[in-house]
Amino acid sequence: MTHSFGYFPRDLLERSGLTGLDFLPALEEVFGLHARGACAMPSPIYFRRRDDQFCNALVTWVPEWGFTSGKLQLGDPDNLKVGRPQVQGLLVLFDDTASLPIALMEAGWVTAMRSVGVSGLFARSLAPSGAETLGLVGAGLQGRLHLDMLPALLPSLKRCVIHDVVPERAAALAEWARASAAIPVEVAGSARDCVSQADVLVTATVITAARQPFIEDGWLRKDCLILALDRDCCFSDGALSSMSAYASDDRRYFDHAKAHEDAFGAIPRLDFDIAELVTGTAPAASRTGRTLTMAIGLPIADLAGAVTVWRKLGHQPQITRLPF
What we know:
The chain is an alpha/beta fold. It is built from ten helices and 15 strands.
C-alpha cells in the first residue's frame, strides 16, 4: 500500500496565517500532560561542532494525542551574515497509531512559533500588573513575532522600544511595525535605554558558547518580566543575582543543559517550570519583582507546534505530498 506524507516548506508555513496565539492551546495542553507524566521526552542530543556551531536532536511521544515527532537542527551564527536564520533544521511528525511519517516541516518556523507561544504562557501569568512598555533586545524574527503576539495577550501594553546591535535590523522592524503592529514602536538609542524602560523584556540575541553579558543590574526595572530566548547570555552576574525568581520550560532539561552544555552556570537555582505554572503548582510565580524565564526548547513544544500546523493545514489540497 502506497503511503505519502505532507511537505511543509518555510514559505508555505509563513503564508499559513497562523500566529503565536494559535499555538497557545496545544502548548498549554501538552504541558499539562507533561505535568501528569503522560509524555515521553528523553534528554536531548546536543554537541558543539566547532566554536559557536552546534547540532541537536529532539524526540518525543504524546500517546494521548497519537503523535510522535523528531527534530534535527544545526546552528551556526555565520548564517546570519548571509541572510539566513542561525538555526537550520527539519521536523518530522509521525502518526503514532500507523507508525508512519505524516509531515516533514521546515523546523525553524515551527520552532520560532512554539517559542513565542511558550513566551505567551509565561507572560500571561507573570507580566507585571498594568505593564505598559515592551522592550525587545534583538530585532530578528523572534522580535517581530513577540511584537505581533504580546500586545494581544497583554492589553495593558501601550508602546514598544527596540534595540539591535545592527541598527538596520532595528529600523526595519520599526518600519514593519508602523504598518502592522498594534502598539507604537520606537528605536532605542542604546541597549540600556531599551532595557531600562521595559516592563516586559524579550532578549533574542545569538546564543554563543561563552556568555557575552552586557545587561547590568542597574538597567532593569524593579518589577519586570524577562523572556530570555538566548538563555542567560545577555546578563551580567550582578543582573542575574538580582532576580526574584528563575523559571524555565522544564526542570530536567534545565539541569541537563547545565550539566552537559556548559549553560546556566551563573543561575543559582530554578524556582519553577511551565508545567508547574500551568497546573498552579508554582508558588514562587509572581507578577512583582524581577522574574527571569529562560526557554531551552522542548520536544513536546515542537510536537505541539507541529500538531497545530497539521490540524490547520495537513489535509488541504495545496500541500505537496511526497511518496514514502
